[in-house]
């Protein structure tokens, strides 16, 4: 394990570089577990049944999957 000096780390430029590499499909993949988490929290606070909560999560996640696979599927980069 090496030693790191964290006093000279410029986090702003690293964050900007990372944010510029996030694609639409990364966001869609992140939306799937987020949909279930948000549906679970809302279901807990509104005292909804587990079936209703899961149905809400599946609906949102299903739309993301359908959009990413069928409506706007990934394409090959040009020139390859």
Could you characterize what this model shows?
Keywords: Membrane, Transmembrane, Transmembrane helix. InterPro entries: DUF8015 (IPR058328). This protein has about 80 residues and is mostly helical. The chain has a domain at about 25-70. Helix content is about 70%, strand content about 0%. The chain has helices at about 10-20, 25-45, 50-70. The longest helix is centred in the middle third of the chain and has 22 residues, at about 25-45. The termini are far apart. The mean pLDDT is about 85.
User: How helical, in percent, are the residues?
Assistant: 55-70%
Mean pLDDT: 85
Contiguous runs where pLDDT drops below 50 for at least 5 residues: none
Radius of gyration over all CA atoms, rounded: 19 Å
Span of the ends, CA to CA: 40 Å
Q: Write the element-wise H/E pattern from the N-terminal end onward.
A: HHH
The gross shape turns out to be flat
Based on DSSP secondary structure assignment, what is the total number of beta strands? 0
- How many helices? The count is 3
Q: How is the main sheet built?
A: none
Strand percentage lies at: under 5%
Label the structural class. Answer: mainly alpha
